[in-house]
Amino acid sequence: MSDYMVRGTAADGEIRFFGASTRETAEFAKNAHQLSPIAAAALGRLLTAGAMMGAMMKSEEDRLTLKIDCDGPIGGLVVTADALGHVKGYVKNPNVVLPSKIPGKLNVGDALDLGVLSVIRDTGLKEPYIGQTILQTGEIAEDLTYYFATSEQTPSSVALGVLFDKDGSVRTAGGFILQIMPGATDETLTKLEERLSKMGPITTLLSAGKTIEEVLEGLLAGMGPEFLQQDPVAFTCDCSKERTEEMLASLPTADLKEMINDGKEVEAVCHFCGKKYVFSIEEMKEILGRR
Ligand code: ZN
User: Fold this and answer.
1) Rounded to the nearest whole angstrom, what is the distance from the C-alpha of residue 11 to the centroid of ligand 1?
2) Of 77, 167, 222, 262, which is least packed with CB atoms within 10 Å of its CB?
């Protein structure tokens, strides 16, 4: 089943929700960057959040970047998304390995440790919108929950999960974002808080075979959840040989000459998807010859 996200409302519009099913996206990222399990879990979670937060933007041209700069051994993460479910991302140290604190649970929090989460929305204005928050747990979902409450004044509940099979492939991945809209009643809030407190980890629900819709229906039962839209989600990179060539062409002349004098093919790797672009000496000379 291909990845997708859903969105909708409940309690007569007092709650809005987003849900995403992202196994293939997480698996693609893991293979593209040859990620350790912890790195794959962290990036899979952030990609899942990126898809849903991207869908909160108004225009197809808008771009969302979720950036985590942190002290932990993972070094940092970057995810970008558009409003149409296209996401891509990478981690600084794809090989990070740490012992588990809780058996069976990957120690993502310590892999990130202390740091800052930035949410950058580029809507074509001169200056992009930038919201920032200090990492609370480094588990990403809690950090985003805190971000929505403090930076956007929107009480929210974020759950993100990536679970692996014994062979290391991603068994299931997904998450949701529930948000309380202005004017929501205390009754709605109380009911939702009670449901969330009883829910248990999202990975447990997903690994039991529940779809993200079923998870949301369970949480919002009796509150009339209405699913309004479903859209595909996919790890998508817009890199190309042409774009890579433009990047090389912008390097200082001295650097280009040095590469040519090395006498070896030049290999440029896309940060976001790991794709390699190879340029022969002849191609390098041609790029240099244009100036
Ligand atoms: Zn790429």
Assistant:
1) 41
2) 167
In whole angstroms, what is the distance from residue 44 CA to residue 176 CA?
13
In angstroms, rounded to a whole number, what is the distance separating the alpha carbons of residues 92 and 74? Answer: 6
Burial of 225 (0-12, 13-18, 19+ CB in 10 A): buried
- Tokens 């593209």 locate to 32
Average pLDDT score over residue span 199-203? 91
Distance in Å, CA 222 to ligand 1 centroid: 44
Centroid of ligand 1 to alpha carbon of 214 (angstroms): 34
Q: Is the dihedral of CA 238, 239, 243, 247 positive or negative?
A: positive
Indicate the pTM of the whole model. 0.94
Nearest to 115 by CA among 97, 99, 139: 139
The amino acid that residue 154 corresponds to is T
CA of 241 to the centre of ligand 1 (A): 10
**Tens-place pLDDT, residues 245-260:** 999 999 999 999 999 9
- 242 Cα–ligand 1 center, Å: 12
Nearest Cα neighbor of 124 from 83, 152, 68, 69 is: 83
Tell me the per-residue pLDDT of 251-288, one tens digit each, with 9 for 90 and over. Answer: 999 999 999 999 999 999 999 999 999 999 999 999 99
How far apart are alpha carbons 162 and 288 in whole angstroms? 45
